[in-house]
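Q: My collaborator sent me two sequences in one message, no labels, and asked for predicted structures for both. Can we handle them in order? The first one she listed is below.
A: Yes, handling them in the order given. First sequence, followed by its structure tokens:
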Amino acid sequence: MRQTINTGQSSYHPNTTGNGCPFQAKAMAGGFVSYNEHIDAKKVRARSQSFFDHFSQATLFFSSQSEHEKNHIIEAFRFELGKVESAAIRERVVSMLKQVDETLASKVAEGLGILVPIARVKLLNQNIPADGNPEKYQPILVKQTLKSSKALSMASTVKDTIKTRLIAILAADGVDEASLNKMKISLETAGAQIKIIAPHLGNITSSAGKSVKVDQSFLIAASVLFDAVYVPDGTKSASSLKENPNAVTFINEAYLHCKAIAANGAGVEFLQITEAGFGITGKNKSFNRMGVLINCTPKEFVDAIAQHRFWDRENSRRSSHPKSQT
């Protein structure tokens, strides 16, 4: 059986980007064929008892998460189940969550305005063969030998590199080319990938009159696809971004998703009208608060990106604070 996973832009067939490769080799070329072995036995369709351990892996996963990650999981269940119109289905899912973790179930139930069922649902698994005995197909409870694993939490990931991270640079006509290029080169040298986002595709013109290639327009770019955002200097560029609702939304979403955000020079003025602008005033020469940096060095921004997310922002949401004044 073939084990190789091809690298490249596409690892499947058919494809055009790889000139049709890889493709399946025929038997004459040494490709895989099944051996026609004669056997004399009874064929049955059955599952090992281990297949009925439906919850231990989920329990380990949830127990291994940081508090911020647990809250995200709880909110996700509240969101999805909140759209379910049948109260019976909502209660049934909460009953299933109780088998994973009682705290998870109780907090999800709280958001749904229901109580966690005390008794366990008798026939929790309804995926039963037509002639099967329902009792034999119910989940089994397995005692956990491992309480948690750091490898399962994003909070425990490596935080000393930005290799492969995708960084957005927001710019418009009048951008300061030196401010843009200095940060761009530093980030690329550290292993990150850079995309310049502007009001339109094609090229923008720097304050020095030079052409700067645009990778994406605000119309098609989505902040959720990027790991961090940088706004370079340039008075005209910053003014243009201020007037672009999509640019403001881009920063707002990145801030609410706890990503690193940096701005230098006139780019700081644009940052001030966004969610990320809390605490930034005209008196700030430099600023570094919960992953929001102004007038920072490339190294400072690289270090911030390497932290991946700044979860403390969720305890200090912009909506709970008055707008800062310049």
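Q: And the one she listed second?
A: Here it is, processed independently of the first:
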Amino acid sequence: MATFKSRKKTSRTHRSRGYLGGHHGDFQKLNIRVNSPRIMMFQFLKGAGGLLKVGFILALLGLIAWGSYRGAQHLFLGNEKYALQEIELKTNGAITHTRVVEVAEIDLGASVFAIDIEDIKMRLHELPEVVSCDVERRLPGQIRITLTERVPVAWIESRALRLPGRAAHGILADGEGITFPCVGGIWQSAQPLPVIVIDEAQEDSFTHGAKMKQPDVMRALHLLKSFGEGDIRAQWQPERITLLNSYSMEATCQDGSRAIFGMYDHRRQLSDFVSIHEHTVNTGRQVRHINLIPKINIPVKFSDEQTSMVSPQSGAF
């Protein structure tokens, strides 16, 4: 019978297994920091070299920008071809070239590229008499300015506010009730306009460039508009409208006659006004004073001091 001898275990086998087992274990890492002066110097030089490269690139970009700026100055700003040669002004009002230059502070010796178009537009639009403003740069040397000015329809007179009415330093109102001062060449064209007289008014009633805070004056402007829209002879057009109270106003016509109107119902009152005046022309008489507020039996005073009661709507004169 065969016998088996057991093998003797050796340490070699354990070492081999131990080695194989270590193959799947964790490795330990060893960090070593070297503080050698030479190595630190190399690291410093390496960082300084990077900074020098960045500085060089920035300096190069700066030189390119400076060269472009100087080139643009030479090509546009310093080129006599683009010097300001003309300011073309288009307006429906009385603002002059001189006032535009003063208000907008335009440098007449500058290049058209050095002139701030938006600044000119802002300065001119701030004028209370200006509704809209457009400014264009047109090469080689022109600035075109197009203005829309307010069209005045009446002067404003108030003793309480020391507003003189028809005067070179007075204030005007357009059809929308927006007031503005009489400046520059406006006086020449606005001089014949009618005057609206109001005795009492608040200090803030009239602010230049804004709609007035006076309803009664607005009704007087409505009456003026109605006169302008009607077929009314020139001698019967109002030269002055005086606000009498909260419900009536008196119009003084070009021929010296006077007529009292209410705050409303202007169409009917003007129809009676024209009918009565036309009738007096046909009869050779002249109206001195008339009260148009009543719808019938309108009191009319003639230049011969006679007073009659008429009803134009019924044809009774």
